[in-house]
Amino acid sequence: MYVYILTNKNKTTLYVGVTNDLSKRLAEHREARNTFTSKYKCYNLIYFEEFQSPWMQYLEKKRLKSGEGRKRNF
To answer: Are 7 and 26 in contact (CB under 8 A)?
Structure first.
């Protein structure tokens, strides 16, 4: 299980997601149409972390979306 962050070329928009298969999910983002990632061209992976527990994965996604994760310098 992974939590990941995508951004656009200019690093002005972030997308936080979770998945069990990171490479497959990244390919889906690139192929998708009319989604958040396609609208804002968020295709560049800038962060990911693997978790063994779905609960820990959920907590990390929530932490990142809350803004606490913005303290990191990408």
So the answer is: no
